[in-house]
Each structure stands twice: as structure tokens, then as C-alpha cells.
Amino acid sequence: MTDIYAPTSHDSINLVELELYHLLMNYRATEGLAAVPLSVGLSATAGRHAVDTHDNIWAQNVTLPEGANLHSWSDAYYYSDHRDPTVMWDAPSRIGSSYTDSGYEISAAGFATIEAALSGWQGSPGHNSVIMNEGSWSSATWNAIGVGVIQSDDPSLEYNGRIYHVWFGQQTDPSGVPIIEGTTGDDDFVATSFADIIQADLGNDTIDAGAGDDMIDGGSGSDSMDGGAGDDTVTYENAASGAMRLSLGGTAGVGGQSDGDVLTNIEHAIGSNFADTIIGSTLANTLNGLGGADLIFGNDGADTIDGGDGDDALVGGGGADNLIGGAGIDTARYAGSAAVTINLATNTATGGEAEGDTFSGIENLVGSQNADILTGDANANRFEGLGGDDVFQGGLGADTMIGHLGIDTADYSDSASAIEVGIHRTGVGGTADGDVLIYMERIIGSAFGDDLVGGGTAPIIEGAGGNDTIIDYGGAATIMGGDGDDTINAGTGADSIDGGAGIDTVRYANTSAVQIDLAAGTGSGFAAEGDIFVNVENVVGSNAGDTLTGDDQANRLEGLYGEDTIKGGLGNDVLLGGGNADTFVFDAAGFGRDLILDWQDNYDKIDLRGSGLTHASFTEVDTAQGVRLDYFNGVSTDAIHLFGASLSPSDIDSSDFLV
């Protein structure tokens, strides 16, 4: 016995039943009647009724009561005098199908072929009127149909085991259409003019889906699938193994279940649970990779691409595409595009193939060969700029930014707090936290006090706002401190250093002797060789014998160790020689009121040789910090204030001066 209140293998439509359906529709068309869509509920009803007739009545040798006919079920008899029509009408809902309205059935038995069964109905006025909406059925409009056929050709059974049930209904089935199933052989499918679900099996099948928005599963074998009119989808979600390469452009598939498949007039594709390559057409495609690390190309058209599970790479191509990464670490790629501007945080994109694109679940971006602007979100993003002068703004999250060719920029101007970041090191703080920069030529800091490390492959460093510390590890760097009191640790190479606003300092502590002239804006010697300066107020020299020269601003010049020569120039300067015997040069009147904070009596010298002054030109004033040497230049009083513990005017004599 077969349970007809549970799904059976005949709930779907097989190819024989599909052929009978076409015969019925073609017959209706001879009178100009419209085709009727297959119903999943009525197909289940027809299929289970055929199974019930064959398995539960004929195979069990059940004798029906007198007057009962083929419309009978094993548990509900239908009589020729129609004494209880609800046995027929209510059958779809009684067996639990999705069809909730009344159903009307025509049946035949014993005919050897479906053509013979149709001929039998055509010769019966009562049956023919149902098919053709004639007589008492003229006011009915059929909006649903189901077909059930069993041809067991078993001579031991009544009617040789051949039963044909067709159900009609006026309600459109809210649950849609049934699955049309193939066989293990090489099948020819000709689907309906409505939306169909086609499930082929083994064999090299030929599928003509016809009109309607169809769903096609070619199964195994080298299949030819033509979606026909409508928005059609091919699916490989049931593939058992193997990654595949699938194209909607008519090129034969390679690998997995798609091997040898040729797709025509198919707009959408669903991949397998393996690592697939799916290539769309020039139309608006919907492409779903399902599982596996998929590579999906949308080509032209406004595509919707869903990578599904796995670490997928999505290439939307032309058109305003909707790129959905799904689970995994997913990448949107624009390698073949003109320049793009993409912001994952705001879900916006402009330029080139990115124009109008939207994103969901995308963690990584690969830009074009042109000048791109790529902005991340709060996730850990990975950006690759390829060619062009690209700008990266990673946002929150531990981001990896790879510039490749061009002058590429890591921009942290959006950070809400100070950062520490540089080439080949992991960033700390703000939007730089956890970031790694590779092949990055330019770094822009935040509005706060940052620690920025550049040089080498990152020769351009911009501190922006805040009191920044900038370290140049070598190469011809361009360093801009921006606003704030910045400290710039210069490296080797001919650097261009602009301190910007604020009181800015350039340091050469880790090099051999240097010569720095802020008035001329130039440097020479070891790490300072070829350096040029703008808006730099202070200098810290090396541990060797440096020559440091200020400008007409208030400078702080610090020699560290070594026998340094330090000239403040105009302005009220702060001078420090550091260890060893240092020389402080005052070669013109109007040198301001300078402080020498670490005067070492009997070691350090005051060089007046270019000024025409001598020791006698100064008035010595004893102060709490040391001795101040005052000189009236005719307009104002210049001063050299020597700071030293227990230093007094008597300690200062002509031996402390070079004249």
C-alpha cells in the first residue's frame, strides 16, 4: 500500500505526463483557448490519484462498489450518478496538497498511449467539454492543471496497469508549479509556456524551457539548455562534486556537473557548493556562487552577484551591480575598469565599472590600474590599488592596504584619535589600529599627535594636525608636518621638509655630522645632504661636530655631542651645544636676545669674528641663571644669556671669545 497523504515520487511531473499536458494544450489551442499553467497542488493530486488507483486498488485487487468509477480513491468512492461530488472536488485539500480550491478531474484507463487516452476523451462529450470549456463548463476559466500517468503495462492488473488522471482548477495555485523530472537517459524536454522548474537527471539532455521564468537543473551529462523567453535560471546547487567553470554566454562549461553544458537564453545562474567560476552575459544577471571560494564575473548589465559561503571574488563589470559577499572573506574586483571611488562604509561607488554599485558583506577591494579611492568600513578590510595613484582610507578594523604601482596614499585624516603607523609595521590607535601598509608611498596622519614612520617605499609623509612625531628611515622623502608642533626625524636621502604651522623641529640624532642652515633652507653632510627646509623653527643635530644655523625666527638649535658650531641668527634663540667644546657664532649686530642653556666655561666659545665686536662691547650682568652679556646695537639691546651653575661675571673673560 502507498500512503497517499504523504508526498510520493509522482507528485512531480515526468516527461510522459509533460507530453500529455502538451497534447491537451495543443488541442485547446485549436479552438483558440489559452494554455493552462501546471499546478504543484493539482499535479500532486493527479499523481497520487494515479498511484492510489494503481497501487492501492488494482494491485490490491480491490473491487469497487457497484456504480463507483475511476474517479474513486481507495478510501473515498465516486459514483457515476455524482451522488457525492465532494469526493472529487475536495480531494486536493483532503490529501494535503497546496491547492485549496475545488478540483475537477477527467480520467481514462487501459489506453496504450497518451495519444489514445486523449482521443478517448475527445470522443466523450462529457470529458471533452471539461477540456474545452464547453457546455456546463463554458463559464469556467481554468487557471491550474495537474497530470498523473502510470503505464506499468502489467497484464496482471486491471486495465494492464495504465491509468490517466488530469485535474483542472479555477484558482491559480499559490504554491506555484511542480518539478518536471527527467530520466537517467538522454532526454528531450519541452517545457510549458509558463514558469517551470526542470530537474533533469543523468544523460546528455536537451532542454527547451520555453516562455516563462524557468528554473533549470540539467543534472549530470553534457546538456544543452535553452531558457527561451523570460527570466531563466540554471542551477547547479545539487552537484555532488567538482568545481566548475560556467558561462551564460554560450561557451561550454568545464568541470563538475557543468562539464560540456551549453547555455542559451539563460539570464541567471546558481553555482555549486564547490569553488566555481561563473561568467555572466551582457544582460542583467543574478549570479549566486553558493558554497566554495567562487570567482564570479557579471560582465555588462545591472547584475546581482551573491558569492554565498566561502571566500569569493566578485567582478561586477559594467552596469550598476549589487555585490553580496555572503559568508567568508569576500572581494570586489575592478582590475579592468577605469578609475573607481568606492566607500564600503556608506555603500556607495562611482566611476568606471563601479558606477552605481552597492555592496553587502564585502570585506576586500581590488581597484583598477588607474587612480582609485578606496574606503573601508568597521571590518578588517584588504585593499589593493594595482596601478595609478590610489588613496586608501581603511576606517576602523585591522586593514591591509597594498598600493602596488603609482604614488599611493594611506589616509588617516578621518581618525578620531592619534595613530601610530608606518611601512611594514602594524598600526596602533584610531583607525590605524592593526593596519599593515605595503607598497605605500604616502601617509597622511590624523588631526591628533601621531607617530608616523616613512621613508624608502613611503617617501611622502603628512602629519596633518596635532603635535606629530615623524620618522624618515631613508630615501628622498617629502615630509609635511602640517598644523601643530611637530618633530621630524630626518633620514638619509635628499629630503624636502615643510614643518607647516606651529613650532617644528628637525632631528638628526642618529647620523654623522650635518650642516643645517634654516635661513638658506638647506642641509648638507650625511643624512642632511640635499635636504631643504620650509617652516622649520628648531634643529637637533647629531652626536658629531655639526654646524647649525638659524634664521630670523626664534630658533632652538641643539648640537648634542661633538664640537658643534651654532649660529642663532636674528630672532631670540635658544642654543644648546651639548657635550664637548662648542662654538656659538654671533657675526652681526641685531642678533636678538639669545639663551645658551648649557654654557661650559673654559670649553665653549663665543665667536664674534664676523660682527666687529669684542668682549669689551658687552656689559656683563649677573643673573640667577648665570651671566647675561648685553650689547646696545643703536636701536635695541641684544643679549647673550649664558646659563651655567654658579657662573658669575668674573668667570667671563676675553679667552671665552673669538675675535
UniProtKB/TrEMBL annotation:
<dbReference type="GO" id="GO:0005509">
    <property type="term" value="F:calcium ion binding"/>
</dbReference>
<protein>
    <submittedName>
        <fullName>Hemolysin-type calcium-binding protein</fullName>
    </submittedName>
</protein>
<dbReference type="InterPro" id="IPR018511">
    <property type="entry name" value="Hemolysin-typ_Ca-bd_CS"/>
</dbReference>
<dbReference type="InterPro" id="IPR035940">
    <property type="entry name" value="CAP_sf"/>
</dbReference>
<dbReference type="InterPro" id="IPR011049">
    <property type="entry name" value="Serralysin-like_metalloprot_C"/>
</dbReference>
<dbReference type="InterPro" id="IPR050557">
    <property type="entry name" value="RTX_toxin/Mannuronan_C5-epim"/>
</dbReference>
<keyword id="KW-0964">Secreted</keyword>
<dbReference type="GO" id="GO:0005576">
    <property type="term" value="C:extracellular region"/>
</dbReference>
<dbReference type="InterPro" id="IPR001343">
    <property type="entry name" value="Hemolysn_Ca-bd"/>
</dbReference>
<dbReference type="Pfam" id="PF00353">
    <property type="entry name" value="HemolysinCabind"/>
</dbReference>
